[in-house]
Amino acid sequence: MISRQTPSALPRKLDAARPAWYPSKPQSVYPGKAARSRMDSSTPRHSGEWEQLLQVAPCGMVLLDSHAVIQFINPAALRLMGLEQQEVIGQPLANVLPNWKDTPLYASLPAFLGAQSTFEAVDFDVPGPEGSRLRVYAAYVPNGAEKARGVLLTIIEATEVATLEQRLHRAEYQASIGKLARGIAHELNSPLDGVLRYTHLALEQLTADSPVREYLIHVKEGLDRMVRAVRAFLEFSRQVTTPVNRLANLNQLVDDALLLVQHRAKFQQIRVVKHLDPSLPTVLDGGLQHAVVNLVKNAFDAMPRGGTMTITTRVAASGHVDVDVEDTGTGIPEDIRMRIFEPFFSTKPIHQGSGLGLIIAKEVVERSGGSIEFTSRAGVGTTFRIHVPVAPVEANGHGT
Asked: Could you tell me which of 71, 74, 113 has the C-alpha nearest to residue 93?
């Protein structure tokens, strides 16, 4: 079990009978005979096999003895700490990494070295090379007398941990929001349907000159808007909970999306131009077609009197694929650009749209591991860009 503890929760007083650190003669990067001789008789019989496994571990592994002297360090730890091939075996940790002296990890080591019983692993953030941050998990190594004979440090990049934690929190958030949206939509759907039906029946029984008829027409318009909002809620809940376990070619997604809106393009006299890169690799798809459709509809909304929409796909740098949706509309006013991805925010008339189109597109793209951005110029138009990573090789080999 791993827990995060503050330094104050750990005793810092050193045993006065022994020194905290002492220098030793530098040895090889890998444990030699002298280092191994310090391992007492409780060393496992297959320690050589364990040592080989630790050498190829992707995370850094450092073993300190009871005086915080380095007994073992693997290549990953050397790389993460920027030590390259320095001879660090037999050196006190304080000499090898003096920039760790002012960290909670350094202050907490005496607590681990003096541990008399099982100690939970504790994690710390420490400085790495060139301004990077490292996450270090410290756990004491007991001997046969249930006393600490050393400390094992497991080291990984803090940025990697933060990214994984963000993805986990985002997945939990999306699942919660999707469940909430689905629940609200289902709770509202049935009563709304009944009220709307009764409103239709009432309108059919009223004469054209009835003063009540005008009021009921306004009621019906409000109900229609609520029905559209409920449908948008349901669509949103489906999109944010769709598993990202399939592969897709963005060119095919673009073609399919344009088929869904081709009638509207003709009606609004919008010219559609496609520049699709035929060499596009596949991507992980968390509902990207819906994102493309929403961006295309958004472009059409920006050109009520006609214009040109250009959609482009290309292979971008750093293993990504881009989809650009460009319109020749009026552009997005500067004072609302920061709000366009807010739920229910819309510049359309009150009876049009749900204000969820762009936020759904953003959620879908981010669930596929990508990002969405835009540029806009008043009187010129707006370009939205979907930026998603290429599917990994193993996904291409096992995807459906």
From this structure: 71
The list of the chain residues with pLDDT below 70 reads: 1-48, 85-86, 114-121, 123, 143-148, 159-178, 181, 232-245, 344, 347-355, 393-400
> pLDDT digit string (tens) for 107-149?
777 777 766 545 556 767 777 777 777 888 888 777 655 555 7
Domain end, chosen from 131, 157, 183, is at 157
Query: Do 257 and 366 share a domain, yes or no?
Result: yes
| Nearest-angstrom CA–CA distance, 275 and 389 | 20
CB atoms within 10 A of CB 266: 10
Query: pLDDT per residue over 227-268, tens digit each?
Result: 777 776 666 566 555 555 678 889 988 998 888 888 888 889
State how far the Cα of 308 lies from the Cα of 254, in Å rounded to an integer.
16
Asked, for residue 136, whether it belongs to a domain, the answer is yes
- 253 and 119 in a common domain: no
Place of tokens 């929403």: 294
In the numeric block, which tokens belong to residue 203?
Answer: 């309108």
CA torsion 69→55→43→30, rounded to 10°?
-50
Domain that holds residue 14: 2-157
Domain presence at residue 166: no
The C-alpha atoms of residue 374 and residue 84 are separated, in whole angstroms, by 42
State which of 127, 157, 187 marks the end of a domain.
157
Q: Could you tell me if residue 173 is inside a domain?
A: no
Distances (CA, A) of 114 to 13, 103, 292, 349: 9, 19, 60, 70
